[in-house]
């Protein structure tokens, strides 16, 4: 092909490329998922069994709460339910860990896969890698990927503490996910 022919073809190629990008973008949509996460550090008669287990003990006590130490790490397999009540229908589980990652504040590094086990997203997962400053009213959860219908997902979540008990350290967390994927 001569360079003149190439030049004549260029607008066509550019249009085709734009069309392709447009189609790809249109095939992705944002899905809003809302559910509740039950983090049970201490099993008590009124709560489900323990779902968060401390597997590593830090060294430096936090200034505001010496019972918690910088470096404490918990592995979690927290049930996800439709509503805030632990008896509400289960939609999945949050599997991963959190670490007290600040030497001064209640700031966790929260790394979890939201694994869906019921409903339209059964078998799919969303991967979250986040900073969870637990006293903040709203924390943002960056979505770093996903599997199944959420393969290649992007987007974010919002995490709010629905209820927490300072004695047992058990908490119910409200999660809103805005997932962008080809679903
Ligand atoms: C979720 O998918 C698994 C595997 O396909 C299946 O065994 C299970 O019954 C499904 N659960 C629900 C609640 O649909
Ligand atoms: C926290 O949990 C303890 C143990 O189950 C319970 O006695 C106490 O009432 C709870 N506190 C709140 C504020 O719910």
Written overview of the protein:
With 183 residues, the chain is mainly β. Helices cover 13% and strands 52% of the residues. The protein has 1 helix and 11 strands; from the N terminus they run αβββββββββββ. The strands form 2 sheets. It has an 8-stranded antiparallel barrel. Strands 3-4 form a two-stranded antiparallel sheet. A hairpin with a 6-residue loop joins β9 and β10 (154-164). The protein is globular, with a radius of gyration of 22 Å. The two termini are 41 Å apart. The mean pLDDT is 90. One 2-acetamido-2-deoxy-beta-D-glucopyranose (NAG) is lined by residues 117-118, 122-123.
Features:
8-stranded antiparallel beta barrel; mainly beta; two-stranded antiparallel ribbon; single chain; binds 2-acetamido-2-deoxy-beta-D-glucopyranose; globular; 1 helix; 183 residues
Please give a quick description of this structure.
Helix content is 13%, strand content 52%. With 183 residues, the protein is mainly beta. The chain has an 8-stranded antiparallel barrel.
Secondary-structure-derived class:
mainly beta
Mean pLDDT: 90
User: Which hetero ligands occur in this complex?
Assistant: 2-acetamido-2-deoxy-beta-D-glucopyranose
As a whole number of angstroms, the C-alpha radius of gyration is 22 Å
Helix and strand element order: HEEEEEEEEEEE
- Spatial strand arrangement across the major sheet: 1-5-6-7-8-9-10-11
């Amino acid at each position: 092909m001569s360079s003149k022919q190439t030049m004549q073809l260029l607008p066509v190629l550019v249009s085709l490329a734009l069309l392709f990008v447009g189609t790809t973008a249109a095939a992705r949509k944002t899905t809003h998922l809302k559910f509740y996460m039950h983090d049970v550090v201490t099993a008590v008669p009124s709560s489900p069994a323990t779902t968060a287990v401390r597997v590593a003990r830090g060294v430096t006590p936090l200034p505001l709460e010496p019972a918690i130490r910088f470096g404490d790490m918990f592995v979690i397999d927290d049930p996800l339910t439709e509503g805030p009540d632990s008896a509400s229908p289960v939609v999945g589980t949050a599997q991963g860990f959190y670490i007290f990652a600040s030497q001064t504040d209640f700031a966790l590094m929260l790394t979890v896969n939201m694994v869906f086990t019921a409903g339209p997203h059964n078998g799919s997962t969303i991967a979250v890698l986040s900073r969870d400053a637990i006293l903040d009213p709203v924390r943002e959860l960056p979505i770093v990927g996903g599997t199944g219908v959420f393969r290649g997902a992007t987007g974010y979540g919002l995490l709010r503490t629905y209820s927490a008990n300072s004695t047992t350290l058990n908490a119910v967390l409200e999660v809103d996910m805005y997932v962008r994927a080809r679903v």
